[in-house]
């Protein structure tokens, strides 16, 4: 296994543990016994894309991870469509055909809400459950916020867990109209305007 493959696997494992209780991913992988394994396979695909086209960072001692994309990357391009086809294989293997239908509905709704203006985007951010609330998530988020401010572009994300909304609001994100998926699952698009530096 190459060094980058090992890093991708480690990052995917961290994100899987951080998202194991997430409502959206429980919606896709309802079987708790196989969910972590399914999520590791799921996140390996997204983390690999993040390394190829975006930015992937780990918290100290591998306690959390973030995957984000800068404004000059069109996330939902042809390569991302190829990635989603691989994701469908993972979803079917660990969640079944019903999960595939849920995923396709989810992907369509999330893509339809994507802002059309240039922006940076936080795609995945998670901390291990044991270290939540210790400030590491904010430190991981800082890199994308500094980029957004330096380039004067907005920053976008979709929160799949209502408990995280207050965290993002503390960093200047504001809620947009929620995306209802049915079965009680609600996703919350959030947008942060770039901050103007007064140090001139």
Can you tell me about this structure?
- This protein is α+β, with helices and mostly antiparallel strands.
- It has one domain (3-192): Aminopeptidase, CATH 3.40.630.30.
- It is 50% helix and 20% strand.
- It has helices spanning 3-19, 23-28, 32-53, 78-95, 97-112, 136-151, 165-170, and strands at 55-58, 64-69, 119-127, 154-159, 174-175, 179-182, 185-192.
- Strands 1, 2, 3, 4, 5, 6 and 7 form a seven-stranded mixed sheet that branches.
- α1 packs across α3, α3 (32-53) packs antiparallel against α4 (78-95) and α4 (78-95) runs antiparallel to α5 (97-112).
- It is globular.
In short:
The chain has 200 residues and is an alpha+beta fold. It has helices at residues 3-19, 23-28, 32-53, 78-95, 97-112, 136-151, 165-170, and strands at residues 55-58, 64-69, 119-127, 154-159, 174-175, 179-182, 185-192.
Topology:
Elements: H1 3-19, H2 23-28, H3 32-53, E1 55-58, E2 64-69, H4 78-95, H5 97-112, E3 119-127, H6 136-151, E4 154-159, H7 165-170, E5 174-175, E6 179-182, E7 185-192
At the first level of CATH, the class is Alpha Beta
CATH domain fold name: Aminopeptidase
Helix content: 40-55%
Architecture in CATH? 3-Layer(aba) Sandwich
What can be said about the biggest beta sheet? Answer: 7 strands, mixed
User: How many structural units, i.e. domains?
Assistant: 1
Rg, Å, rounded: 16 Å
- What gross morphology would you assign? globular
Number of strands: 7
- Our count of helices gives 7
Order of helices and strands: HHHEEHHEHEHEEE
Q: Report low-confidence residues grouped into runs of 5 or more.
A: none
CATH superfamily: Gcn5-related N-acetyltransferase (GNAT)
């Amino acid at each position: 296994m190459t060094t980058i493959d090992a890093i991708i696997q480690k990052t995917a494992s961290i994100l899987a543990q951080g998202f194991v209780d997430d409502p959206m991913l429980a919606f896709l992988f309802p079987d708790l016994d196989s969910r972590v394994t399914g999520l590791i396979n799921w996140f390996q695909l997204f983390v690999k894309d993040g390394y190829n086209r975006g930015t992937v960072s780990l918290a100290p001692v591998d306690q959390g991870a973030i995957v984000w994309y800068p404004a000059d990357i069109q996330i939902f391009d042809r390569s991302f469509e190829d990635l989603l086809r691989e994701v469908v294989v993972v979803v079917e293997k660990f969640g079944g055909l019903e999960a595939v239908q849920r995923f396709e509905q989810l992907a369509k709704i999330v893509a339809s809400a994507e802002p059309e203006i240039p922006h940076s985007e936080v795609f995945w951010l998670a901390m291990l459950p044991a270290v939540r609330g210790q400030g590491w998530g904010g430190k991981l988020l800082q890199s994308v916020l500094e980029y957004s401010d330096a380039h004067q572009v907005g920053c976008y994300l979709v929160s799949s867990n209502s408990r995280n909304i207050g965290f993002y609001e503390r960093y200047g994100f504001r809620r947009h109209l929620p995306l209802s998926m049915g079965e009680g699952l609600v996703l919350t698009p959030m947008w942060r305007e770039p901050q103007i530096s007064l140090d001139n």
